[in-house]
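Feature request disguised as a bug: please show the residue count (430) next to Ribulose bisphosphate carboxylase small subunit domain-containing protein in the output. Example input:
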Amino acid sequence: MSYYISPRFLDKLAVHITKNFMNLPGVKVPLILGVHGRKGEGKSFQCELVFEKMGIIPVRMSAGELESPDAGDPVRLIRMRYREAAELIRVRGKMCVLLINDLDAGAGRVDRMTQYTVNTQLVNGTLMNIADNPTDVQLPGSYETEPIHRVPIIATGNDFSTLYAPLVRDGRMEKFYWQPSHEDRIGVVAGIFAPDRLSATDVERLVETFPRQSLDFFGALRSQLYNNQVREFINKVGLGQVSTHLVNNPGQRLQFDQTKVGLTHLIEIGQHLQQEQTQLQETRLAGEYFAGAKSSKSGRSRNLQPKPKPSVPLTQAPEPVRTESSYVSDSNGTFPQDDWPEKVAVAKIEQLLQRAILQGGRLTLEVARPREKSNNVWRTWPWPQPPKNATHALAGIKTCLQEHPNSFIRLIGYNPQTQTRLLEELIVRP
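Example output, currently without the count:
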């Protein structure tokens, strides 16, 4: 199978690697090339294709190797892999690179809750030291005077802004933001479906049908085409015999018929995959469970405290709640008279609440500070008591707004039986 290599990607890696093997007088060449971009766009796979095309031997590391229960182990491993690549250059007479996949996942800090360990500090310091002295990389406890070969480092990741700032400065790391163009996407997808003989017109229409999907989406789409043949194989062998049949016949090659690929069928499968993505993003059961546990805990704490004696007779009527007549009209909507902030369209919110309640849904609120919202991180806000109607729900929203005055607030309505969302609306902007 012939895979597509983006000319822009090939040019960037080829120039960076070649420069690191050339002696350019008076020119400081960064040792590290940081390839960053959205998830699933084929950064690591494009790197492997470039290595194969140029005849380069990669020595690989992953983010999972940048942490250890023992302080200093990741640093020792980085130095060993670097020296291993330098030795391969000397012995085999070919270019070698050190490839570190998902560097930001192992050495980055996403927020203040991310643990910053001694190993993280040592990894950053070691990579900075190697970038500054690429021919003098020693193992701990070993000091050799003979220089080793310079080895360019390729690091992939999603968000390099989470890395230690001195590590990503221009003298040490050259940055390359990988976002495939429309032509790149068509070329990659055409390579994926090349064995299926999908026409160029159908490939272009398929890419245009799912413009916001990453490239790995189309690889998963092709994988779904063989599900029916796998089911037929399971039925032929027997569900109880599949385990022993496949494990005890490792050399057996299974023959699958060439699937007949049609654009309409591919779009149907793609829409199903897209629905699964939406379901995953909208379920958010963990936040609901956490909010429920928190409310239950606070409820138990309140029950343990002695109840104060009522200071008014039990027959006295409770304080009236705010009604529609308490709102005043404005150009931006309808607002309460007193302490609701401006630009909070209370009338519109009340309509949303009534619609969700009429549909039999439950209501939740989610809050996020501006930085959290930019990373799509929302926290469930527990209601003091479940809202029975729109008026009670407005009172809860008002309490949430007082507790989180500088946060985004969105209203969620969901069906408690099917766990599907009926409503999702951003109602407050800071």
